[in-house]
Design a protein that fits this description.
Blueprint (H helix, E strand, L loop, with lengths): L10 H18 L6 H10 L9 H10 L4 H42 L2 H12 L3 H30 L3 E2 L2 H28 L2 H11 L7 H28 L18 H33 L3 H13 L1 H12 L3 H30 L11 H18 L3 E2 L1 H19 L2
Antiparallel strand pairs: 1-2
Helix pairs in contact: 3-4, 3-10, 4-10, 5-6, 5-10, 5-13, 6-11, 6-12, 6-13, 6-14, 6-15, 7-9, 7-13, 7-14, 9-13, 12-13, 14-15
Length: about 400
């Protein structure tokens, strides 16, 4: 085509115009829901969003230094709809990104609330809250959510079936993660001298420095676990993806454009980080004033808030007979926490420096609790079948653990 007076003088101008045009098309969301429709669905698409009213209450109560119970309760309730919105934004972005990118996105943001709460507690020196909330998230998914899902499915179907190989691979990886937490506890019990054990116990209470050997073990293990997690993502999303595929159903139409969902994800993450910071800041005073054990808050209350949306989704999928999705939500989320979130927090504590070091040493009681839970889940899912009785066993064990941590 011959040049005209409108032709660009340089090819770079044409490339620049092309890039600008692509950006405009992306922002305009042509062929996708409009920005107005996207945010109307995002903010008014669930009755759970009514609880977003507690977000400003959380900010106001923290700013004006209201009673600790009010600050804790407002922040606690505010995080429930925020967790739902994080999941919704991630799901809407995943619908347009393809299977691999969608899987990576879900893997990255699937436990965003746990990461945000964990980092907030870590930077405030609340090591016990960090550890118990992470352990609580694993136990909540493995016992409470999976147990309720098996129970719900058992009342509708006499027996439910799911892919055995994928379930065994996931539970085996969970067992590996559990073992990596047993080794630091064994080192603490058998190798460290008594005075070093006392110093470590004092450190968990925020009173002294930690043993250097335990730091080396924890940081080295964290790096290895992150490598295993990356390999597991490749195994799940690429090389053996057929093992994790659920039966095909009708694909839902996206309700948000990709850009609108991305902006919503970013803004919700920021708001959640503030609410999580306020929540963690009020735990100490609330626990002391109202005589609530801090391990119970970290192990039981915080995980229920962070995983509320996943709990509902998992039970709903189980009642529809989609057990592969249920196993993926429950066991998959636990794997993310054990092999990605906890090692990530160890690395963050390493970077943050003295006073914020996090190790993989959990108290012996907590380690035994995790091991017995993983053992029971591994035993129940290895045959690829489930029923209401298995669900009852899982929920019962969770209740026993909750009772034990109330009196710790």
């Amino acid at each position: 085509m011959p040049p005209s007076e409108r032709s660009p003088l340089l090819d770079g101008d044409a490339q620049s115009d092309s890039v600008l045009h692509r950006i405009k098309v992306l922002v305009a969301a042509e062929g996708e829901p409009s920005w107005t429709d996207s945010y109307r669905f995002f903010l008014f698409g669930s009755y759970l969003n009514v609880f977003l009213l507690f977000v400003p209450l959380s900010i106001i109560s923290h700013t004006l230094n209201w009673d600790a119970a009010l600050r804790f309760s407002f922040s606690f309730i505010a995080i429930i709809p925020l967790a739902k919105l994080l999941g919704e934004a991630t799901e809407q972005m995943s619908a347009k990104l393809g299977q691999t990118l969608a899987g990576l996105l879900n893997a990255s943001f699937g436990n965003a609330v746990e990461i945000i709460v964990g980092i907030a507690a870590l930077l405030q020196g609340e090591m016990r809250i960090v550890q118990t909330s992470m352990l609580g998230s694993i136990l909540s998914n493995l016992l409470l959510v999976l147990g309720c899902s098996f129970l719900a499915a058992g009342f509708k179907f006499q027996e439910s079936n799911f892919q055995v190989t994928a379930a065994q691979a996931s539970s085996s990886l969970m067992t590996l993660a559990c073992i990596t937490l047993i080794i630091p506890a064994a080192y603490h019990t058998t190798i460290l001298p008594k005075d070093a054990q006392d110093r470590l116990s004092s450190f968990l209470a925020g009173e002294s420095e930690i043993d250097s050997g335990l730091l080396v073990i924890s940081r080295g293990t964290a790096l290895l676990l992150l490598g295993v997690y990356i390999a597991y993502l490749y195994f799940q999303l690429k090389s053996h993806s057929y093992l994790f595929e659920a039966p095909e159903g009708e694909a839902d139409e996206p309700r948000m454009s990709v850009v609108a969902a991305g902006v919503a994800l970013l803004l919700t993450t920021v708001v959640t980080s503030f609410c999580a910071d306020y929540l963690v800041a009020s735990i100490e005073e609330t626990a002391d004033r109202y005589h609530i054990p801090k391990p119970f808050i970290g192990l039981i209350l915080l995980p229920i808030v962070a995983n509320a949306a996943e709990h509902v989704t998992s039970v709903w999928m189980a009642m529809k007979g989609q057990m592969e999705l249920t196993i993926g939500i429950c066991v998959g989320s636990s794997i993310q926490i054990a092999t990605f979130v906890i090692p990530l927090l160890v690395i963050v504590g390493w970077i943050a420096g003295p006073g914020h070091e996090l190790t993989l040493f959990f108290a012996n009681f907590e380690t035994i609790t995790l091991f017995t839970s993983v053992f029971l889940v591994h035993t129940l899912i290895q045959d690829g079948k489930s029923n209401y009785m298995e669900g009852l066993m899982l929920v019962t064990l969770y209740c026993v653990i909750a009772l034990a941590f109330w009196v710790v």
